[in-house]
Amino acid sequence: MKNLFCLLLSILLFSCNSNEKKSIAKNADNTQPEEIHTDLYGSWVGDFTVLERDTTRAESEMYSNKINIVIKKITASEVLGQSVVAGNSRPLKGKITTEGNTFHFTLNEPGDDKNDGVFDFEIKNDTLLVGIWTANNTKKEVRKRKFELVKKAFNYNPNVMLPEEGMYIDYQNPKKEQITEETEGENPEDAKEDITYMETVYREASESIFKINSSTQKLKESDVKNLKKIDLEILRNTIFARHGLTFKTKTVRQFFDDVEWYIPVSDNVNNELTAVEKENVVLLKRFEKYAEDNYDSFGR
Known about the structure:
The chain contains six helices and eleven strands. By secondary structure, it is α+β, with helices and mostly antiparallel strands. It is globular.
């Protein structure tokens, strides 16, 4: 009986030593590779413009969108990041090579979305990111885009407002309007004649979008009941722009992509909204449903 006990004890001790060695080996294998060039981490933001388009087809993709390339991790063997543009947020994975003060990246989107592609770019002197994106789908309308980005940190600021320079006109959704004008001949006795033609007209926002802060001010019905539909749409989406939502629709992107403080960081920011913002979104959407717009003629 004593011999059997000794044998079982020996087996147990051998098993424990074996498991301990395996655990040590496993921990050694899981050692994280050293991260390098961490000063390049963060958001690189700028215009994402058409470089190569299929001109045999009608243009459906915008010439320029604001893009944010986020660099999250760099090691000698791998780079991880994210692209945020036009309503899409896609993980990036690839490689880095260095030559002097220039860092060259080749980063791939996953490839399981029709809009995925490959980002090939350089960062020179840690200040400017320049490169080309190529679509995986060779039959895509826009096959290549170029970009020149600068590093910008995103910070939510409920007080930022849309700049007042320029007009906020919805060029993405024009409509045709019949115009009739009465013309007179050269001589007083000439008969008057009506000329009818079609003119393209557009929606334009009012100055209310510069005066109402839909993130800090709890809006009442009296604040919004007389606003145009486009005003309500812009006020609602300014809430999301402050939180860095990347907008899917061209109608909304046209109002925010040129705004200096706007940085797209996510395709869903609903959980980031404050209580006041959530209440205002509900109110603005309710009034959008019944609001109307005036259309005017503007040159492009």
